[in-house]
Amino acid sequence: MAHAEAGGREGHPRPTLLSDFILGSQDGLVNVLGILLGLVAAGTTTRIILVAAFAALAAETISMGAVAYTTTLSRRNLFLSEVERERREMREVPEAEREEVRVILRGWDFEGEEVEEMVRRIESKPKAWLELMMAFELNLSEILPDQPRNSGLIVLSATALGSVIPLVPFLVGLSNELAAIVAVVLSAITLGAVGVYEARTTVGPLWLGAARMLLIGLGAGFAGFLIGRIVPIL
Questions:
Q1: How many domains does the chain contain in total?
Q2: Percent of the chain at pLDDT above 70?
Q3: Checking CA distances to 3, which of 25, 83, 139, 180 falls within 20 to 30 Å?
Q4: In the predicted model, what is the mean pLDDT of the chain?
Q5: 3 part of a folded domain
């Protein structure tokens, strides 16, 4: 099957690895940062801040890892069911499937007899025929058997890592206010670095990748700060 999601260019991370890492690290960092800033703004004690932040870290890490696993597993199951459906249609309604191949080929600017010649060649190779239909009719890429597990583990680990970053200043004896400032700085540096890394491994200006991550991450953190200011702790 198509391996668009299973591998990448040599020296570059797999697309799913990159997206899973960004998803987990950004989610963990943003959520814990928002909680920390909200509690500091509300004047909460350091003990309550740490309890709440570690509880959020644990819950978010497990939840994100589980969601990544089940989501990827569902995509794999969908892919496998579509493979079986396409195989059945190739056996039972081959002419309809041939016409779908013709439509794909005409979209690539093949015309006339060369379309029919290509159809005959593709039909003679059932594996190629099936992969063509999966990739270009259904726009589905293969989800390998180990991908759900790997995705879950990557997102889980990245979420835990991202969650720890804004917590560090609160663990070294700083005042809550100073720890909050340092947490914002560390979070901004981390988000900017992740954005630059994403831009370097995909496309787009480095500054845009960093700015996008900063805007999303610090915007969510600022929302937590506002909640802490507006809603009193009872």
A1: 1
A2: 89
A3: 25
A4: 85
A5: no
